Each structure stands twice: as structure tokens, then as C-alpha cells.
Amino acid sequence: MGLFGNLFKGPQVDMAKSDANRKKMRVLFNQVVENGGDYKILFGYTEDVSRFNYGIVHGSKTKIGNLIVGWNEASQTIVVIPTVPDLSGCGDATFYRQSDILKAYQNKFPTDEFIIYPDRKGYIGIGVCEWLEDEKLYVYVSQDEEVKAFTDFFLKQFQKK
Amino acid sequence: MSWGQIGAVLAVLVIVFVAGNLWFHFVEAIFCQLKKWCFKNKKPTAWHTLPPEQELEGNEDG
Fold first, then answer.
1. Domain range holding B42?
2. Domain-located, residue A3
């Protein structure tokens, strides 16, 4: 039973690794964002799918970008910081204030993402997931509660059409 | 179909696969060099590294 139980249970989250990465995310976030402690954070990702046609070879390429996403309910602001799966560093923060953006909504098809249009020129699509096993591509973190809280905040307070 | 013919078909498929891969990486490398050349004056984006003590702590934990 034990052996078969483990086989059917599927992959399990390494909570020690997940907690260590959660701490690293917080350190990076607070390093880049002023009063970072006022924000809740979670891991998000972007998927950039592009088609190519090189004559005899054609197909599509997907680029994955890792993000630390922070949100502040009081100021109704979402902060996005690019990072890498091993959390060795991060880029500069981009702020999206609900009052300043053009629109924001949850997209269900073709991908489940939170879309934010800061203006007419461009947009960002943020994917969130409770846990992604592939730590070469994504930050290894288990975040069920954070995903629920972010979805709730986005749909009830941040969404703009 | 004889074993020899099956082998020949498989060999052709392998050659097509390898040639396609080589062609893809060749074109990608050219585009990469062109991008580097076109954007060589572009200012690199800021990057903040994780403080070393935090990195060590993280490795010990996991």
C-alpha cells in the first residue's frame, strides 16, 4: 500500500526548498521596492510565444519569463519584478496603479493569465500557478494561499474594463 | 517492405531531423549576432543580485 500509495500520490512539494525560495523572493522584493513589506508577494511568469519560418524549418518558440509579483490592497497597486528561476537576482520594479492603467482583466483563453494594459502601446500577461515542478524553468515555490489572495484582489479590486 | 528499406526510411528521417535542427540553430545564431550588433549601444538593464548571506542560507535550507 505504501509503495503504490506513493506511486499514485504524484510529485510532492519539497517544502524546505519552497520556503527557502519564498524567503529569497521577499529579500529581492524588499531590496528593489520601497516599503516592500507593505506588499504581499507571489511568483508569476510570462509566456512569449512567437512563430518562426526559416524556409525548410518552421514552428513556434516559447520564452518563459519569471516574475516576482507584489500587490498592495491599500494603494491598489501591482508591482512586477523580473527574476530568474534560481532567484540569484532580479531586475527593476514596474508599478501598475489601478488608477493609472488603461485596463486589466483575467484572460481564460488561450492561456489563463492576468492581463494588464498600462497604456495603448503594450501589455503584460501574468500567469500564476500553485506550484510548478520544473525548477529549471520556474521558481520552485508552493503558493496556494497567495494565488487565491492575488486572484481575489485582482478580480475584486484591480480589474478595470 | 524489407528490413533494409525500413532502415533506409529511418535513416532519411534521421538525416532530415538533424539537418532541420542544424538549420534552425544556424539561423538563430545569425539573428542573435544581428540583434547584438544592432543593439550594441543599448544600455543594459539594471540587475540586483541576492545578498550573499541570503543565498547561503537558502542553500543550507534546501
1. 3-61
2. no
Which residue of A57, A61, A87 to mutate against B (max B Cβ within 10 Å)? A57
Average pLDDT over residues B25-37: 94
**B61 neighbourhood in chain A, CB within 8 Å:** 16-17, 19-20, 23
From B18, which residue of chain A is nearest by alpha-carbon distance?
A: A57
ipTM of this complex: 0.79
Q: What is the CATH number of the domain that holds A143?
A: 2.30.29
Q: Cα–Cα distance between B38 and B15 in angstroms, integer?
A: 34
A47 in a structural domain: yes
- The percentage of chain B sitting over the pLDDT mark of 90, rounded to a whole number, equals 65
Alpha carbon dihedral A86, A18, B51, A83, in 10-degree steps, equals 40
B20 and A57 within 8 Å at the Cβ level: the answer is: yes
Q: For chain B, what is the domain count?
A: 1
Count of domains forming chain A: 1
Residue A12, pLDDT score: 84
For chain B, the 3-state helix, strand and coil shares in percent, each to the nearest 5, are 75, 5, 25
> Could you tell me the CA-to-CA distances from B48 to A43, A84, B45 in Å, in that order?
17, 11, 10
Cut 0.90: pTM above it: no
* pLDDT at residue B61, rounded to an integer: 47
Residues of chain A with pLDDT under 50: none
Q: Where in the sequence is the domain holding A70, given as residue range(s)?
A: 12-158
Nearest by CB to B49, from A18, A54, A89: name it: A89
Q: Which residue of A has its CA nearest to B58?
A: A20
